[in-house]
Amino acid sequence: MTIKLMGQGVQRVEDQRLLRGQGAYTDDIDVGPGLLHAAVVRSPHAHARIVDIDLDAVLDVEGVHAVLTYDDLTGPMAEPLPLLIPHPALTHGRTQYALAKDEVNYVGEAVAFVVATDRYVAEDAVGKVKVTYDVLPAVVGIEAARAAEHLVHDDVPGNLGARLEQQTGGDAPAVVAAAPHRLSLDLDIERSACMPLEGRGTVARWEPALDRLQLWTSTQSSTGVRAAVAVKLGLDLGQVDVITPDVGGGFGVKINHPWPEELLVPYAARALGRPVKFVEDRREHFISSAHERGQVQHVEVGFDDDGRLLGLDVELWHDHGAYTPYGLIVPIITSTQLLGPYKPGAYRVVFHSLYTNTVIVTPYRGAGRPQGCYAMERTMDAIAQHLGKDRAEVRRVNLIQPDEFPYEHGLVFQDGRPLTYDSGDYPAMLDKIKALVDWDTFGERQRQAAAEGRRIGLGLACYVEGTGVGPYEGAHVHVETTGKVKVATGLTSQGQGHQTVFAQLVADELGCRFSDVEVVTGDTRRMPYAVGTFASRAAVMSGSAVHLAARRAKEKALRIAADALEASEDDLQIVDGVVSVKGAPEVSLDLGTISVLSNPLRYAFDEASKRATQFQVGDPGKPPVAEDDEPGLEGRDFYSPERATFASGMHAVIVETDPETAEIRILQYAVVHDCGTLINPMIVEGQIHGGVAQGVGGALYERMAYDSSGQLLNASFMDFLMPYVSEVPDGIDVDHLETPSPLNPLGIKGAGEAGVIPSAAVFAAAIEDAEGLREDGLAITAMPISPSELFELRLAHQNP
Amino acid sequence: MTVSAQTGETGEAVHDVRLRVNGVVHDLRVPARRLLSDALRHDLGLTGTHVGCEHGVCGACTVLVDGRSARACLMFAVAAVEVDITTVEGLTRPDGSLGPVQQAFSECHGLQCGFCTPGFLTTITAGLEENPDPTHEEARDMIGGNLCRCTGYQNIVAAVECAAVLRRGGSRGPGPGGPHASITEAGGPS
Ligand code: FES
Ligand code: FES
Question: pLDDT digit string (tens) for B7-57?
């Protein structure tokens, strides 16, 4: 019997390629001779009117083939870029043009597009484009946006893109006012960014003979880019193929689309009749791709003597940057997922989504949840401190109980559906995380450390994550006559191991050998219907679709085999790619042969196909392909769930802070995680490790250092402090809980973003606990926190 | 690239250079400013060497120059003559199977997107040459100059330790097990 691969730490098939240097990332794609390279003239000002663009000096540069400015764009290309996710509350949505028209709104905005023989020459030419600007006052930071002394867009009063209010469970302000205990908190969290090691890149080839465009792009949504390119270039969808090759990390930034260059590259390729490539450099990634996180939060909370929430009234100010191509997804997620595993009592949340003259904000791993978790978990810590209670116990009294699922919050989630948790076991999870860090004895440990002059502290943070949002994903499973199984799903991969986990699912369901399965993702030629890879949805959505498609292929295989073997389908089994009669293994057919039989042929071209010619198979009295049937051994299916499935987790960290230097060291990091049934625990743990490392970066090191004129001062890996191995914990203790989701056939929930969600919250709590800075209210209210900021905080506490 | 004797298509002065990469000699003609990383990737088609920052910080472009790790984005192709360059493509064994560091990465799930990976593989190859039996701390130090945004480094450190065993002719415990599979030593140093 074959072992089920579901739940096994199967080694990744994609590694064989990647480890040999045979990966094919966008910049590696060989599109044939004549390739030209693009570079972009970007605004040096955060806010300015374009007075003049002088191209005289560029056109003389040898090797320059074309320079585009806004005036060269026509038709839909001259319109603003799409607003991907319109929302009725986004009353003042604005998007940029592919090339700036009249005005620029952040340092880095694309102004002109140069195409030349190579990137070196293209960059030389960029330096020769003379743009005259009339500089306007820049709006930088949430405070300036709220003050609205200056406007980012003249026609957006108060710099306010959207205001959205939701409430549930009663009149929150009134309940808070009447509560026996009340607290208010003002919190701040800074900007960071995804920073995949591979930036954005796009290559396009126009085929005049076929009247067709081929585009390779480093994206999280091939089908999205395809639709956008078709609309913008005035092409039929059928004329555009988008292929997502290997992608060197995404973490959210590559879900936004189309980027200006994703349109300008094919536009130029078609105009010049030569393939064109754009690959951004690291500085460009900092100043022209997307950021996330930046929020200011105000929390009013009312609670009882046990710390039970009675009312929670939250106001958020979200910095969405200069434009809103991705709508309100991030603040909507913050405002709904803030609730975590808790019952809030009466809850009201209002967010203000604000324009600033900075890089756009679109989802970064966690997508608004880290901010929400930070607000809620800081609140929990504040309640515990106020009541002098154990922080874990205060959380415990507020947890949704296992018998309360499905739990209906009475709010609308990011997908426009009710916020309903499907399953989970939060009290069990709390027990597990406490056990991992010896929670109950930590006080003693802390006292001992203090006796040695050391400061150690413990923090805890809990979250719930809506994963696997719709609308749908699909999959196609094709058994070839060789018995090889070719699988295609439309969403893209950025390192999650999809080629492995989807092959595990197909092998299990179809009954073929794992090594016979080959999975392709993100190629619109193979699967034109797809949404994309975001919101920890790939395993849930495509995983379910792949499973269903494999089931269809299996059903067909059994039907054909039953006919050929003159057996009942119920008596058949498929093991290692062979269909046989249970108890009579010699009566069998392999899947390859069944594939031959499934496709009646007129022409024979090899031994296998001879067996499928019309003289060999079928009842001469019937049509070769039955009326309700199709040729081929294939299965295609789509998975479209009613709503998202909710994963959950709890993190704890023990830190030590240096009494002199305020340096912050991680002594232990522990994670309990529930993403339902695990497909491949090795890959899930890898996702958690990566998320935790990004979380450490976000909590202790990473920030976007804008000056007041809107210049990003740290736009390089030298100055933006991404964690090396020396900054991440040495070992991460992970424990899993598997509460299957009732919403999909495999019981799975998403896992991709989990590791990063509680970081800001958990580190703030641990550092504060180490420092004992909490007598007069919460001390750490702004994250990330650096040693010098901690040092300042100490001074402030000494001299209030 | 089509070139005239002294100047390229763009009128730039070009130089004849001979690069020895993975034991193969390549003659090419490049402008003085052409980075070694670009020459490897785009002139020689060895796209396994990746570029993550082009300012010497991430280590994705690391290659071996006479066996020592070096950042190809900080070298000009014209300065890489008279040395032996090894790229990730050259770490595979002659029979096409994975070299010990590559094998260790596969067994320990030391990569996700794979973009940083070639730089880690070359760095660790040089590191283990210098220190074949690193302690845990030394294994962490060995990769201390390379950035990875996906893995959180846990399994890369495990891969360094596993690679050290594999280089000595050891093998890992049977079956899929990822980073937690046991490592068994077989025989002494090879
Ligand atoms: S690309 Fe050379 S160090 Fe980053
Ligand atoms: S595996 Fe993606 S950056 Fe390291």
Answer: 556 678 999 999 999 999 999 999 999 999 999 999 999 999 999 999 999
Token readout for A576 is: 């290692």
Structure tokens at A241: 């193929």
- Compute φ and ψ for B62, nearest 5 degrees: -60, 130
Beta-carbon separation of B112 and A717 below 8 A = no
- Provide the angle, in degrees to the nearest 10, between the axes of the packed helices A787-798 and A759-771: 40
Are A421 and A616 in contact by the 8 Å Cβ rule? The answer is no
Complex ipTM above 0.85?
Answer: yes
Domains of chain B: 3-90 (3.10.20.30), 100-184 (1.10.150.120)
Amino acid at A524: T
A471-487+502-639 carries CATH number 3.30.1360.60: no
Query: Which residues of chain B make contact with A248, given a CB cutoff of 8 A?
Result: 50, 52, 113-116
Closest ligand, as measured to the CA of A198: 2
Is B154–A689 a contact, with Cβ atoms under 8 angstroms apart? yes
Q: What does the pLDDT look like over A445-493, one tens digit per residue? A: 999 999 999 999 999 999 999 888 878 889 999 999 999 999 998 888 8
What are the chain A neighbours of B88 within 8 Å (beta carbons)? 19-21
CA neighbours closer than 13 Å in the CB half-sphere of residue B51: 26
Could you tell me the strand order of the sheet in which A578-581 lies?
A: A572-575, A578-581, A584-590
Question: Pick from B112, B149, B176: which is nearest to A686 by CB?
Answer: B112
Which of A63, A494, A724 is nearest residue B10 as measured by Cβ atoms?
A63
Nearest CA to ligand 2 atom 4: B148
Domain boundaries, chain A: 31-136+200-247+254-288, 367-468+642-796, 471-487+502-639
Element containing residue A391 per DSSP (H, E): helix A391-398
Inter-residue contact A699 to A755 (CB < 8 Å): no
| Interfacial B residues in 136-165 facing A (CB < 8 Å) | 136, 140, 143-157
pTM of the model: 0.94
How many CA atoms, within 13 angstroms, populate the side-chain half-sphere of residue A754?
Answer: 33
- Spelled out in words, what is the top-level CATH class assigned to the domain A31-136+200-247+254-288? alpha beta
